Amino acid sequence: MNIPNRITISRILLIPVFILLLTLPLDWGSVSIGSNSIPMVHLVSALIFIIASGTDWVDGYYARKYNLVTNLGKFLDPMADKLLVSAAFVLLVELGMAPAWLVIIILSREFAVTGLRLVAAGEGIVLAAGQMGKWKTTFQLVSISFLLLHDFPFSYLDLGFSVGTILLYIALILTVISGLDYFIKNWHVMKESK
């Protein structure tokens, strides 16, 4: 197994740690930042989430730079992303930090695109992620991070609105648009499927 795939697996292994931190009744106190107070468990969870998210860039960069792109990597990398993002969104709903309807739309798009990729794979076609999908993922990761960090560093500014929530709605819009774009561009896979 090459290094990029090991990095991807490390991302997958961080997911249970992230989940346990946010679901176990841990009380490590809180940190006051500006007019906000961040529970220490949210801060630690956010750091783990950010590190796990960062491994996505590292494994992709390393695989492309050293020509270590493998079929296993093509499978593991998007799966790791979806597992991490799905876990984070479900936990944000449980914590009351994201509306359930919004998360259902985002996760539905992810399942639908994964289904289309599976149909394509059955036909021997590999569907790469488009630029819009990459923007969608970026906004999802950044919005989750800001929500877990209770808007730090913007909490210092006392803006009167949540930057994380605004980024979450932008992520929702990009998720819907990129999903429609993905299906429109790849509809031939569904039509030609046996």
Automatic annotation (TrEMBL):
According to its UniProt record, the EC number is: 2.7.8.5
Asked whether the keyword Lipid metabolism is assigned, the reply is yes
Give the pathway. Phospholipid metabolism; phosphatidylglycerol biosynthesis; phosphatidylglycerol from CDP-diacylglycerol: step 1/2; Lipid metabolism
Chief subcellular location: membrane
- Cross-referenced PROSITE patterns: CDP_ALCOHOL_P_TRANSF
Q: Which NCBIfam families match?
A: pgsA
- Give the family this protein belongs to, as stated in its UniProt record: Belongs to the CDP-alcohol phosphatidyltransferase class-I family.
What name goes with this protein? CDP-diacylglycerol--glycerol-3-phosphate 3-phosphatidyltransferase
The protein's organism comes out as Halolactibacillus alkaliphilus
